[in-house]
């Protein structure tokens, strides 16, 4: 663990967007401290949280840098910030390798996770046909990612990267919609990431707050 910096405060709850951040901090060995919000109780709308994130959402981080704090929302921007703080840990150093890892990262963000979130939203409105169609589209994109891990060990190449973190959290949430017997490569990849210490610790980060 990096002891030369203050822990980053990670304000969140046990949701995919927050778990991605926790896994990234674990993988990058960045010290962090979780502050748990109860979303069902609406704590994300408390004035103290709105002062940090006027959208009333999580995750939000506070990086205590000294004179000014960095306050950042948007899980995927936070992941990129973590990658910049620890070059080579979450994205490859070589430009062409990094370009591929980022291509895959954005594939999971836009073609899998965003579509799945839209399905969730439509379901909450009672639009079952539309939400089912979007769920199927998201799951198909996830299944299609088997071709990435057929070609390389990880989703974004031969090293673990943000692409794996994005893919892993959504695959965990939607694991019952994937036919794991249908693709050995996807299963091999999922099993390996699930056992990774950063993923194991990150997935538990919001079980007990330490803030
Ligand atoms: N695009 C944002 C989405 C943030 C978001 O929607 N967070 C959800 C939890 S995953 C939230 O705060 N929901 C509480 C609410 O909307 O009241 C991100 O990636 O951080």
Order of helices and strands: EHEHEEHHHHHHH
Structural category is alpha+beta
Bound molecules: glutathione
Helix content: 40-55%
**What is the architecture of the largest domain at the second tier of CATH?**
Up-down Bundle
Main beta-sheet annotation: 4 strands, mixed
Mean pLDDT: 95
Contiguous uncertain segments of 5+ residues: none
- CATH top level of the largest domain is Mainly Alpha
Shape: globular
Number of helices: 9
Give the radius of gyration: 17 Å
CATH topology of the largest domain: Glutathione S-transferase Yfyf (Class Pi), Chain A, domain 2
Number of E strands: 4
The domain count comes to 2
Read across the widest sheet, the strand sequence of neighbours is: 2-1-3-4
Report the portion of residues in β strands. Answer: 5-15%
Separation of the first and last Cα atoms? 18 Å
Keywords: Plasmid, Transferase
Protein name: Glutathione S-transferase, N-terminal domain family protein
GO molecular function, one term: transferase activity
InterPro entries: Glutathione-S-Trfase_C_sf, Glutathione_S-Trfase, Glutathione_S-Trfase_N, GST_C, Thioredoxin-like_sf
What does this protein look like?
- The protein is an alpha+beta fold and 211 residues long.
- It has helices at residues 16-28, 47-52, 75-85, 95-124, 128-144, 146-151, 162-173, 184-195, 197-203; strands at residues 8-12, 32-36, 60-64, 69-73.
- It has a four-stranded mixed β-sheet with strand order 2-1-3-4, with helices on one face.
- Strand 3 and strand 4 form a beta hairpin.
- The mean pLDDT is 95.
- The protein binds glutathione.
- Residues 15, 17, 39, 44, 56-59, 73-76 line the site of glutathione.
